[in-house]
Amino acid sequence: MKYVFLKDMAYRRARIVLTIISVACLVALILLMGGIMKGLRMQARDYVESVEQQAETGTVWLSTERSGSTFAGFSLLNSEHLEILRSLEGVDKDIPLSPIIFAQARPVINGKETKAVVVGYQKGKLGGPSEKDKTDPNAPFYPIIGRLFQSSQYEDYRPMDIPPGEVIVDELTGLEIGQNVELAGKPLRVVGKTRGKFFVFDTPLLFMDIRTAQETVLSNVIYVNTVLVKVAEGYNPLQLANEIKERSTVRVDAHTGNQIVEIILANYVDEPMKGVQALRIMLWIATGLIVAMITYVTTREKIREIGVLKAIGASDKYVVSLILKQVVIMTLAGIILGIILAYLAAGVFPIMVVVSTSESLLVAVITMAVCLYGGYIAAKRAASVDPMIAFRGR
Amino acid sequence: MNSLIESINITKKFGESESAVVAVDNVNMSIYEGELLVIMGESGSGKTTLTSLLGCILRPTSGSLIIDGTEVDYDSEDLSMIRREKVGFVFQLFNLIPYLTALENVIIAMDIAGIKEHEAEERAKELLTQVGLPDRMDHRPSQLSGGEQQRVSFARALANNPLVVFADEPTANLDSRNSASIMQLIEKLCNERRTAFAVVTHDERLRTDADRILEMQDGRIL
Prior knowledge:
Helices cover 47% and strands 16% of the residues of chain A. Chain A contains ten helices and 13 strands. In chain A, a hairpin with a 2-residue loop joins strand 8 and strand 9. Chain A starts with a helix and ends with a helix. In chain B, 34% of the residues lie in helices and 27% in strands. The two termini of chain B are 22 Å apart. Classes of the chains: A alpha+beta, B alpha/beta. The A-B interface holds A 1-2, 4, 7-8, 10-11, 304-305, 308-316, 318, 387-388, 390-393 and B 48, 52, 57-58, 78, 80-81, 83-85, 88-89, 91-93, 95, 97-100, 104, 107-109, 111-113, 117, 120, 156-157, 160, 168.
């Protein structure tokens, strides 16, 4: 009679199937929420980490003082004021300063206004795709399909410089090379395409020359949002960041690449996703409650059966184990089905969802623990049935 | 005769202080090996409470119980162990597990007692044959008549070779033909086995075949 609990489940299969489906839906939701957050975290880190990889020796990102970096607040810097930084020992002299514009924008793509992040940088410096990304699979912005944009006329910032009207877009925008993107009324010709380069919530990155970005998103003022400093080999980025803050003649904030990643995650993922995290915990509790309630209601229905088992000698342990075996089977089936559902749904979700094996295992373990706890409480109550009920049925 | 179960001044009260109902009042009695004991009395006279006390389903308010020569220690003893090893029960409402076959309903009593499945199955088949259901073993309770269900209950009660089988109004839910058949079964089992049967009943037909008859009134044995 090893499988008496299975026979009971087969007898009450309609309720068991409904419970399994309920658990599966909740597990899938928990996993998808986690997957959305994981996807957001990956997208949030991707740009800065790609630039970090490009720099190889570490980076320091400068921004207006107390702006919290251009990724968190509003920062405008004039790179000419930062020339003094070239003299610092920790600054790599090969690529001393990389001015960057990183700004949210509403370009018109395929006739439809859409959200995007404009990344303006100087070709040959840090901040966006380089020639290397066209051929080297290990390059951070690989692959670049097509070509890079033309550089502006001058190395420095001159208002008379005519910005090149070219842009590199992500292939998921659906744009083909030669098509136009309209940004602030100016048509920009697509000359190259990246693959999988997004900021949070699948916001595509539009890479362009810094002068083009200044013209389209900063009304042609010769400011930049952030200036990137490549750390010289053997120097510590954090030490350099502190040194810059102390020695700079203009008041600036300086953050290492890791600090920038933390700022982005805090501002774009952790803070807005607090509610989602709370919802995930509530869903876990709901899963445990559903299993506990259904177990309890089911055991209340078969209270006489339990009374009879106790009257013919079943110990409380025997009764609890019968019920808990059912809880384990129901929860396990629900978890497996839920994981399958989550993987299937992740593939067709409108935003990036990353359901990982480790997350699935963690969700499985927590869900099983919550359901076992709920089931155990219900089973203990069921086991406390008075066997006298077998005599008169009440 | 050898006393299997003996109650000494056993009393059971339900409720508190002045409003307490005395269901069994200071009862002294014994059940002997192989006997057919019939317990009769009007409704509410305390028959079922007495059998529940003797079968260790209820704890007495006072008094003591000796089973197989050993006094039951209610504070430290696992009463479920006594119920699965020393006594068997047959209920008025049959109380078979609906999702198990007749055979499995008998096996489960042995499963609870930790008997190996193969041995339990062999013994369950023997018992079901003994109660006259050799060809109904694979039927579920819903596929059996009331009389057949009660026969399965007897087989289940005998599964762990108890000292005493307590049968609580075993014919109350049966028609006269099935009642007569169950009465014959009780007599047959009593003659074939050394197990004692304590049958709570209103059925006057058992009077003639009983070894002893106890009459109860207001919780006392007359």
